[in-house]
Amino acid sequence: MRVIPLRAVTRTFVILAALLVSCAPRVPPPPVADAGRQCLAALDRLGVVYQPAAVHAAAASCEVDNPVRVSAAAIPWDQSGIVSCGFALTLDQFARDDVTPIAERMFGERVAEMRNFGTYACRTTRDGHESLHAEGKAIDVASFILEDGGVISVARDWRGNDAKGRFLHAVARAACRRFSVVLTPDSDRDHQNHLHLDSGPYRLCGLSRGR
Question: Is 66 helix (H, G, I), strand (E, B) or coil?
Answer without folding.
Answer: coil
